[in-house]
């Protein structure tokens, strides 16, 4: 049989939800979300456009049919660039996410006492 913890007539779940709502309303948390959006939205937009341009160009134009070098067409160069872009963006995101994780940890550390009350 599990006992429900009550604080001021609130269940444990309601207390945790209240603490979470208070945390997400802080300036620091909103700033963290804004920073993440400023990075993720442009990078994702660029990647999606870059990714979907290849099939469009290959299907509807002759731009990628020309020889780039060593008997390799621009279509192959573009396709290989997609792999490079994925790895570069992945590595950049790993570095950025470390900073976001540190900011999130700082926010939790700052508001730990208020969350636990």
Automatic annotation (TrEMBL):
This is DUF485 domain-containing protein. The keyword Signal does not apply. The chain crosses the membrane at residues 39-60, 72-94. It holds the Pfam family DUF485. Keywords: Membrane, Transmembrane, Transmembrane helix. It comes from Metabacillus rhizolycopersici.
